[in-house]
């Protein structure tokens, strides 16, 4: 009987934690970062799948493949950012918000291509996918910081 109460209480605590991480709106930057990384994981799967498909199946240039996959990841990230990750929006005009989000994304894309070049040409990493993964890690940090400070904070 006491064990059932303990288990029920434990489930309630887990449910509260789950709701904090996945359901409730939050201004907590750590939860937002978790959600950004989680949603980034979803975008990552699409991004890398498209990269692998365009680069290795269709034999498209690595920079063009990176661009195509990055744009798809950007679209997914925007949708998840406004619906789930961030609950504060600095701008009222969604067209301006999308434009700035896209500009940050284009800067991220330029950084992606720069890091692809750096890792493959200067660091001599011969596997394009490994260079792409490393570049993604660095650009993720840039994207979160730029989007959080520019778009998803109070005025």
Describe the structure.
- The structure is a single chain.
- The model has no long low-confidence stretch (mean pLDDT 87).
- The protein has helices at residues 2-22, 29-57, 62-85, 94-122, 128-150.
- The longest helix is centred in the first third of the chain and has 29 residues, at 29-57.
- The chain is globular and about 60 Å long.
- α2 packs antiparallel against α3.
- With 155 residues, it is mainly α.
- It has five helices and no strands.
- The termini are far apart.
- Report the portion of residues in β strands: under 5%
Q: Distance between termini?
A: 52 Å
Helix content: over 70%
Write the H/E string, N to C: HHHHH
Radius of gyration: 19 Å
Tertiary shape = globular
Show unreliable segments. none
Described by strand count, sense and barrel closure, the largest sheet is: none
Mean pLDDT: 87
Count of helical stretches: 5
Number of strands: 0
How does the helix and strand content classify structurally?
mainly alpha
Topology:
Blueprint: H1 2-22, H2 29-57, H3 62-85, H4 94-122, H5 128-150
Helix pairs in contact: 2-3, 3-4, 4-5
What are the main properties of this structure?
globular, 0% strand, mainly alpha, 155 residues
Task: Summarize this entry quickly.
With 155 residues, this protein is mainly alpha-helical.
């Amino acid at each position: 009987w006491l064990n059932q109460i303990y288990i029920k209480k434990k489930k309630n605590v887990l449910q509260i934690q789950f709701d904090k991480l996945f359901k409730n709106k939050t201004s907590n930057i750590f939860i937002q970062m978790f959600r950004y990384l989680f949603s980034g994981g979803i975008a990552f799967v699409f991004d890398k799948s498209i990269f692998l498909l365009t680069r290795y199946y269709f034999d498209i240039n690595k920079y063009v493949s990176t661009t195509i996959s990055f744009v798809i990841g950007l679209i997914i990230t925007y949708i998840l950012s406004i619906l789930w990750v961030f609950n504060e929006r600095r701008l009222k005009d969604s067209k301006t918000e999308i434009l700035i989000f896209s500009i940050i994304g284009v800067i991220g894309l330029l950084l992606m291509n720069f890091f692809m070049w750096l890792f493959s040409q200067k660091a001599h990493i011969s596997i394009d996918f490994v260079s792409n993964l490393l570049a993604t890690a660095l650009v993720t940090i840039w994207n979160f910081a730029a989007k959080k400070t520019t778009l998803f904070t109070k005025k």
